[in-house]
Amino acid sequence: MKITDIRTFAYRIPTGASASSVGAPQASKEGSPSHGRTEDRPPIDDFGDYFIDQSAFTSIYSHHHESTVVRLETDTGIVGWGEAQSPVAPRVTRTIFEELIRPLVIGRDPFDIEAIWTRAYGAMRERGHPTGFYIDALAGMDVALFDIVGKATGKPVHKLAGGRYRDRIMLYAGMGGTDPQEVADKAEYHVGHGYKALKLHLLVDRDGVADIAAAVRERVGPGIKLMVDVHMRQTVSSSIELGRRLEALDFTWLESPIDPSDIAGQAEITRALDMAVAIGEWSRTRYEMREAFERRAYDIVMHDIGRTGITEGHRIATLADTYNIPVAPHVGGGGILAVAATVEFSASCPNFMIMEHSHDANAMKAAILKEPYEPVDGYFHVSDTPGLGVDVDEDRLEEFKFPE
Ligand SMILES: [Mg+2]
C-alpha cells in the first residue's frame, strides 16, 4: 500500500458570527485562557483576528477557531485524516506540509509510521526547526497515517498504539473569569453537565486566584476534582505561597506557575509543594522534556497530542512513566481531530490520568464532522470504530477553509 494523494485544509470557523450556523452553544475563544466572554478577561492588544493579553508576555490567540487538517489517500482508496494543530496562522502549517512533508510521504507505505516520522524530523533538524509549526505539521501526518492503518486493519487507533488500557476517558472541563461568583456559576454549570473535574484558568493576581479558588470549592463541594492554571503569571515564591493556599482547598494541581523555560525555578516549586505541579503543553518532543523530567520539574506532564502526534506523544508518555509521572493531555486550541487523536492516545497510555476538554466549544469544533463526537457525563467512551473513529465532512471543511 502506498500514499498516492495528499490534500491540506487550513480552515477557520468564526466563533462569533457563524457560531449559530454550526450549532455552537455560544461564541468561545477556544484555546484562549478565559474560555469565555471577553469581559471576563484582562485587557488585550487586539490585532484584528488575533490578540494578546496586555498583562503578561503570554501567547497569541485567535478570536476564531483555526487549524489545519490533512487528508492522505492510498492507492487502495483508503483516506486518512489528521490535524496539524494551528491555533494561529494555519496557512503557515499548510505551506510547511505542502512544501516539506508532502515529498517525504508520497509513495510511502502508511504502515511505516515511525520510520516516516523519524526521517521527517531529521530532515529539518539542521534547519533549526526542532519544535513549533514544523512539528505540529508532523503531528497531522502521524495521526493521518494512524487513521489509514486503522481503517486498513479494521482496528481503532488505540489498538495500534499500545492497546486499550481503559474503556472510558475521564475529562476535566476548563473555564475562566475574574469574579469569584461568576466562576463559581460556571463551575456549577459544568458539574450540572456531569463533569467530576474542573480547571480554572485564572489570569488574576495571587490573592485573586485564591479567592476564586475558595469560591469554587465552596460551590461545588468536596467531591469534585479542581485544578488551577495561572498561565505563567506567578513568581517562584508567589507560586509556593499560592500552592499552599490551594492545598488547603484540596486542589489537585497548580499548572504553569512560571515561565517553563526556568526549569530550576519550576523544580523548586515542585519540591516545595505537597500538591502536584503540572506543566508541558508547550513541549512537542521528548528532547524538549528530558531535562525537566531529570530534574523533577514536573509532577504531571500535559503534552498536547495535536502538537506531538500519537507517535511522539507515546514516546513522551513512556519517558514520563520512567520517572513515575502521570500524563494529563492538554487540549486547547486543537480541533475535533486533535480531540479524537487525544482520546485514542489516552486509551492506549498506561500512565494516563485525565484529559482536558472544552464543553462549550466541542460542538463548534465538530462542525467539520459527519456525525457528532461528544462525551457523555464527563467521559469519552472508547470506541471500536476502525481508525480515529470520526468521519470528516469534506463539504463542511470546504466551507470553512481559507482560499488556496
Ligand atoms: Mg495550560
What can you tell me about this protein's structure?
- The structure is a single chain.
- The chain has 404 residues and is α/β, with parallel strands linked by helices.
- The chain folds into two domains: 161 residues, Enolase-like, domain 1 (2-Layer Sandwich), CATH 3.30.390; 222 residues, Enolase-like C-terminal domain (TIM Barrel), CATH 3.20.20.
- Helices cover 38% and strands 17% of the residues.
- The chain has 13 helices and 14 strands.
- The strands form three sheets. Strands 7, 8, 9, 10, 11, 12, 13 and 14 form an eight-stranded mixed β-sheet that branches. It has a three-stranded antiparallel β-sheet with strand order 1-5-6, with helices on both faces. A three-stranded antiparallel β-sheet has the order 2-3-4, with no helix packed on it.
- The chain starts with a strand and ends with a helix.
- The structure holds magnesium ion (MG).
- The site of magnesium ion (MG) has 4 residues, from loops.
